[in-house]
Amino acid sequence: MQITPTNAETKLESNDFIVSKTDSKGKITYCNEIFMSIAGYKEEELMGKNHNIIRHPDMPKVAFKLAWELIQNGKEFFGFVKNMKKDGGFYWVFANITPDYDENQHIIGYTSVRRKPNENAIETIIPLYKKLLELEMASGMKTSEEFLSDFLIQNNTNYDDLIISLQG
Amino acid sequence: MNLFGKIKFIIGTFVASSLLLTIAYFNQMQKLVEILIVLVPLQALLVLILASILMNGYKQELLKANTVLKKVANGNLYHRITHIDKTNNNLAHISWNINNLLDQIEAFSRDISSSLKGIAKGDMTRKMLPSGLHGDFVRVSNEINEALEVIAVAQSKDEFIQKMIITLDSYAKGDYRPVINVDGMQEDIVQLAHGINSLGSALNEFSKINYENGLMLKKGSIQLTQNVSILTKAANLQATSLEETSVALDEITKSMQHSNQNTHQMAQYAEELTSSANDGEKLANETTVSMDEINEEVEAINEAITVIDQIAFQTNILSLNAAVEAATAGETGKGFAVVAQEVRNLATRSAQAAKEIKTLVENATSKANHGKEIASKMINGYDTLNTNIKLTMDLLKDITVSSKEQEKAIVQINDSIAILDKNTQENAKVARDTNEIALQSNEISHKIVELANKEFDGKEELQAKFKGMA
After folding, report:
1. Which end of chain B is more exposed for a tag (fewer CB within 10 A), N or C?
2. Cα–Cα dist B90/B6, whole Å
3. Angle at B417 between CA B412 and CA B419, to 5 degrees
4. Are B327 and B333 in contact (CB under 8 A)?
């Protein structure tokens, strides 16, 4: 079922705290009430579905690649993410994804906490994502990855520092 | 209200709502009213069964929640209550509140974990994220952030102090280039950093000057050595050419003395020549006089010859007269005629002799005149000779004067050469001494360059400036 994206934006409240969990493959195992009310889904519509159900087509793939690389290696991921609602609208979040471990320290899933993003950060990130997406459309993810890497080197920073300093 | 009270309340509400639904059902389906009245107890029973079913669902929800809470109580914050039954509004609320609480606790716990991991690795950017948390979680998050800030400051100070130690260590090893960046440095240690930077800057400057001086000295001493070598060579060459000049001058002096002697001799010869020329002239004059006297004598001879010629003529006539007389005297005069003939013969011979003498005298006169002419020419020649000798003598005098001047000049040249020689020898000695000094300063410059060969800013420029020296 294809959702057509619209320009209707929902802005998070400063107190909003979206939480969701997935298994190690990315299938949703938990979502909190704020998630459901903002994304416009019911619990049963989300449980067991892949988390990319809320992925917005404006997001460059390289962002998710980076996220997966980090969390699969037991590291946390920070990022500004544009998510798509069930009705095609969108909402920006400041996401923090961390791995979930079992008693034997094996990764059994991931928890994503999404907070209200800094407005200025979004203004900065929109053109960057647009550029990355263009590169991906034109010549694949390798190009956008290289562009992002060069961009970070040129600005004498790394991905985490850039994102954390943008969020403030 | 305890849990049981709640359950009762929920059942009551449920029964009431069931009755209302039944009544509604009854109102809509009027034909079944009687049946329904009959079936009231059955309805009540049905309600009880339904309540029991609902109770069972309720129990299951509680068991689900309990399972999650048990796991969480064991420290496994990962678990959540899912597939929440929305028909049990209040129970759903409880479940969601439990989930919300778990979300808060888990996020808070993970934040603490990440922040502490960051700090342990020296990463001070990862802080607690109070946004989205509630109440105490926010307060404690902020408190933790404050504590992290203090740790970060201490860590940062420690890093700065480490940097200072590394910088000082580098100075101790002779590399004065590092400068401590004081950006973000705490006030209480920034003065120390400034002090170290000033020290580094002073050491840098000092080394630069020292190195530059050393290189300049080295360059200068090398140049000095080269120049001294040139100077020594020049002095030696000068000494050699002075010696050669001296020898040549000696030869010139000798040859001048020789030519002075010659000049002197020539003057003497010229004087003698003058005297001889004068004698010659005198003799020539005398010759002229003698020639004139000869001419006079020849004139006298001519006159005598004329007398003799006249006598010879008269004698001839007289002989002729005698012959005539003898002839007239006949036989007696015969002898006389012979005498007369003889007289005539003598007269003829006398006339002939006179004629011959006259020719001889004429010749003599001619010769005498010729001799006079020659003498006269000789006199003129002697005049010219005398003039030339005079000129020559004047020239010789000039030569003598200039020779004397030349002699004086040569003496002066000799004196100058002697002074030059002395100076040259002194120069050579000075050159040798200077060479010694140049070698010493070269050695010193090497040592200075070696000692000043530290690491400082501007070293490469100096090395480029003094190419081949460093």
Report:
1. N
2. 10
3. 95
4. yes
Q: Quick one: how far is CA B328 from the chain centroid? A: 148
| Residues of chain A contacting residue B100, judged by C-beta atoms under 8 Å apart | 32-33
> How many angstroms away from the CA of B167 is the closest CA of chain A?
24
pLDDT mean over A109-116: 94
* B470 vs B270, more confident: B270
Residue A158 lies in a domain: yes
| CB-based contact B125 A108, cutoff 8 Å | no
Work out whether strand A18-23 and strand A28-31 pair parallel, antiparallel, or are unpaired: antiparallel
Q: Residue A4 domain-assigned?
A: no
CA distance A78 to chain B (A): 11
Contacts of A14 in chain B (CB under 8 A): 131
- Please indicate if any CB of chain A lies within 8 Å of the CB of B195: no
Number of domains comprising chain A:
1
Mean pLDDT of the region A70-74:
91
Question: How far apart are the C-alpha atoms of B434 and B439, rounded to whole Å?
Answer: 8
CATH number of the structural domain spanning residue A111: 3.30.450.20
Q: Please tell me the predicted confidence (pLDDT) of residue B32.
A: 46
**B84: nearest CB among A43, A76, A98:** A43
Chain B hits for A47, Cβ within 8 Å: 82-83
Residue of B nearest to A105 (CA): B76
Interval B413-443: pLDDT, tens: 888 888 888 888 888 888 888 888 888 888 8
Determine contact: A118 vs chain B, CB below 8 A: no
Please, which residues 21-50 of chain A have a Cβ atom closer than 8 Å to chain B?
Answer: 21, 29-30, 32-33, 43-44, 47
From the CB of residue B359, how many other CB atoms can be counted at a distance below 10 Å? 10
pLDDT given for residue B57 in this prediction: 73
In a domain, A125, yes or no: yes
| Lowest mean per-residue pLDDT among A70-84, A87-101, A154-168 | A154-168
pLDDT in tens, B100-141: 999 999 999 999 999 888 888 877 788 898 888 988 999 999
Can you name the residues that pair with B92 across neighbouring β-strands?
Answer: none
> Which tens digit of pLDDT belongs to each residue from A94-106?
999 999 998 888 9
| B106 → closest Cβ in A76, A101, A111 | A111
Chain A environment of B133 (Cβ under 8 Å): 17
d(CA A79, CA A90): 16
CA A122 to chain centre: 13
In which band, very low, low, confident or very high, does the pLDDT at A60 lie, cut at 50, 70 and 90?
very high
Residue B46 pLDDT = 60
How high is the mean pLDDT of chain B?
83
Nearest CA in chain B to A21: B78
Complete DSSP assignment for A129-152: HHHHHHHHHHH-HHHHHHHHHHHH
- Supply the DSSP symbol for B97: H
Specify the amino acid at residue B446: H
With CB atoms and an 8 Å threshold, state whether B114 touches A113: no
Residue A59 domain boundaries: 17-167
- Is position A96 within any domain? yes
- Most distant CA pair in chain B: distance in Å? 275
The whole-angstrom distance between residue B331's C-alpha and the CA centroid of its chain comes to 150
Would you state the pLDDT for residue A11? Answer: 93
